[in-house]
Amino acid sequence: MQSVTKLRLYASPEDREKLFATMERYNAACTFVSPVAFSEKQFSNIGLQKQMYSTVRERFGLSAQMAQLAIRKVAGSYRSTREAIKAKNKILKALGEPLQVLSEISFREHGAVCYDARVLSLGKNRANIWTLDGRIKLRYSRPDYFPPVAAVKQTDLVYRDGAFWLYATVESPDSEIPEPAEYLGVDLGVVTIATTSDGIAYSGAATEKVRKRYGNLRAALQQKGTKDAKEKLRKISGRERRFKTDVNHVISKQIVRAAEGTKRGVALEDLTGILQRTTVTKQYRERHHKWAFHQLRTFIAYKARKAGVLVKVIDGAYTSQQCSVCGYTDSGNRPDQATFVCLQCRHAGNADLNAAKNIAARALVNEPIAVCSLPGERLNRKPVKSMKPIKAPCPRF
Ligand SMILES: [Zn+2]
């Protein structure tokens, strides 16, 4: 089965301009082709290419591939609209209502650009995208569950809610896992590695101790800087990783088992929520934590798949500031790191548990990943301070 995964693109103001310019030109080409396709009822891609290709290339300065893709979008849009109207008319006919007719399609200035592999390729962390101004490489957010790049059939560039996204169509073999009625929410942290919405906390005390011990040793060796010291450094970092890996194996196993035993799915937050919360200053520490978080999430995903447990990744923005009882969101709900006290309904409790409950609840809504921002990046819209109870659809920022 095919499914669409939304990948957030991170573009500098300069690159955003390039994407906008390309998007506008591409859709202008679609708008140019559309009346011809409509008036001549030419909805076959090959037929329309024959008729319009050279004009589109000349007029819009698109590459050969991009000109073809614009024409293909027009032909495809007409065919799918015609199919939709046909299906709708069957019902209207049965009801004795007036039937719908196909009309000329107009294309929005910032409508999707339907790329293919020749003009957009996905790397491990970066997407290589054709623009009018040459190719650009942009970082994108990649969920742990994202399959190998080879499984991507098509990628559309979409502008939505002030940000650029890639909608990647992928073949997903895991679709046989049915949607569970409930989720076990997992909140990831530094002091407490993981807290579940059942209230079980996996302490990071042991790993922190190891990290600190090696940390001091590391600093001393780094200062030394000799060849021997460098070799020791390498060994230490290997040992530390192996220890953390063992801990992550144990935690992920227990989490998946808890979900499996109660026929629930596992809900995790995407990295934005975690990065919003953890203020790590030292470079090594940050890198180490990111690696550890990523590994734990990967282990959970892997073990869950083997156990037939569905894993959903939700938008982690403000999970720690939102009240799991009434939905009120405010940074003031957190008097300190460990405590949650709702300013609105006075609900009080452990902050990680409150976040885990929010994560579990967000997984139950249809669209798990909403727009959210990384620190230091600004979106057009400001986050809302107060939100409706979390039974409502996932909040967008
Ligand atoms: Zn509340």
UniProtKB/TrEMBL annotation:
UniProt record, GO biological process: DNA recombination; transposition
InterPro entries: Cas12f1-like_TNB (IPR010095), RNA-guided_DNA_endo/Transpos (IPR051399), Transposase (IPR001959)
Pfam families for the chain: Cas12f1-like_TNB, OrfB_IS605
GO molecular function: DNA binding
Superkingdom, taxonomy of origin: Archaea
Record's keyword annotation contains DNA-binding: yes
Residue ranges constituting the Probable transposase IS891/IS1136/IS1341 domain according to the UniProt record: 171-259
Keywords of the record: DNA recombination, DNA-binding, Transposition
Domain spans labelled Cas12f1-like TNB: 293-359
Family listed: In the N-terminal section; belongs to the transposase 2 family. In the C-terminal section; belongs to the transposase 35 family.
PANTHER family: RNA-GUIDED DNA ENDONUCLEASE RV2885C-RELATED, TRANSPOSASE
NCBIfam families in the cross-refs: guided_TnpB, IS200/IS605 family accessory protein TnpB-like domain
Protein name in the entry: Transposase
